[in-house]
Amino acid sequence: MRSAQIQRKTRETDIRVALDLDGSGQHSVDTGIGFLDHLLGHLALHGCFDLQLTAQGDLHVDFHHTVEDCALALGQALDQALGERTGITRIASAYVPMDEALAFVAIDLSGRPYTVIEAGWHTPSVGEIAVSLFPHFLETLASAARCTLHARLLYGRDDHHQAEALFKALGRALDVASRLDSRRAGQMPSTKGRLT
């Protein structure tokens, strides 16, 4: 089973994640931040993995800790569910339009964390989340999941649509990159014979 359960508890947050990479997009997300729930729902649905995520955080202070720790816990769950990463497609990309916005995400489940994010925003926040937290979420997720992630907003007028397009593109790219490829027959997808 390519699945994982993670609990991350600190003085600031208590996060629980259950993830099944070979699901169908079923999800239940409750972080206390409505727009984050919405984005994580898109991620699971378009990634075709089953996700249960609950978070209790110090929202009275700021959304930062909860957003960051959700990314950490989800990234750890992805890393755990991928296991040794043998037989996976490993590298994938996706363009996703959302009305007037267009996003691109390329991912390599290489075991090497790295991020490049190019995104311009028009407002300071979306659904009460500071737009600075969107790239921070992606960077934190990539670090914890041990993957290389390039994300780019090509254009758009509505920051809500731009954020949705980014998370949908991430889901689509993760879906393909994490798939088992029967042609690899359990082999490591690297000329080195190992990842990292």
Short description:
Helix content is 34%, strand content 31%. The chain has 196 residues and is α+β, with helices and mostly antiparallel strands.
Description:
This protein is α+β, with helices and mostly antiparallel strands. The protein has a single domain (3-184), classed as Imidazole glycerol phosphate dehydratase, domain 1 (Ribosomal Protein S5, domain 2, 2-Layer Sandwich), CATH 3.30.230. The protein has helices spanning 34-47, 64-82, 133-145, 159-178; strands at residues 3-9, 13-20, 27-30, 50-57, 91-98, 101-108, 114-118, 125-126, 129-130, 148-155. Helix 1 packs parallel to helix 4 and helix 2 runs parallel beside helix 3. The relative contact order is 0.20.
H-E order: EEEHEHEEEEEHEH
Q: In total, how many beta strands?
A: 10
Mean pLDDT: 95
Distance between the termini: 23 Å
Which CATH architecture would you pick?
2-Layer Sandwich
Please indicate the count of domains.
Answer: 1
Strand content: 25-35%
Percent helix among the residues?
25-40%
Evaluate the radius of gyration.
Answer: 16 Å
Q: In the CATH hierarchy, what is the class? A: Alpha Beta
CATH topology: Ribosomal Protein S5, domain 2
- Give the strand order of the largest sheet, numbering strands 1, 2, ... along the chain: 1-2-4-3
